[in-house]
Request: fold
Amino acid sequence: MIETYITPELIQQAKEKSEEMGRLNNSITSGEGNIAGFLGEFLVADLIQAEVTNTYNYDLTKNGYTFDVKTKRCTSKPYDHYECSIAEYNTKQQCDFYIFVRIEYTNEQWKRAWVLGFYPKPQYFKNARYLKKGAIDGSNKFTVKANCYNMYISDLYSLEQYVVT
Reply:
C-alpha cells in the first residue's frame, strides 16, 4: 500500500475534469464521487508514469497494458481486511488490470490517498465475492448499494512490486 498526500493543484485538476464530465450513468453516488475518481486516476498515472486516457473501458495505459482505477472515498487509513469493490455493471469494461485507491475525505477536505494494489481483470471475478444490492456484507456490516464483486485489500498484488518497477 502506497500512501501519498493530495495537493491543491491535483484537487483543482480533478474538479475541472469532474465538471467537464458531468454525472456518469449508473453512478452509485449520483456523481459525487467524480472528483475522488479523478484524483485516484491522476495519482496512479503519476506514480506508474502512465498516460491518462479516460475511456469507458479503462483510465490509463502503459506499455500496451490498460488499467481501470477504482477509487473509494474514506475517512481514515484503510486496513488490509477492508475490501475493494467492482460494481456488476462495470464487469464488461475492457481493461487488463484494476488498480484500487482510497482517498481520505473528511470535513470537506481532501487529505491523503492510498494506492492499495492491483489485480488482473480475468482473475478478479474468479476470486472475488459476489454481493447482491441490499445485502448486508458480513465482513463489515455495510449495506451493499449495487450488485458487486468484493476482494480484501490483503489479496491485491503490490503496486510497488509489479507495476512501478
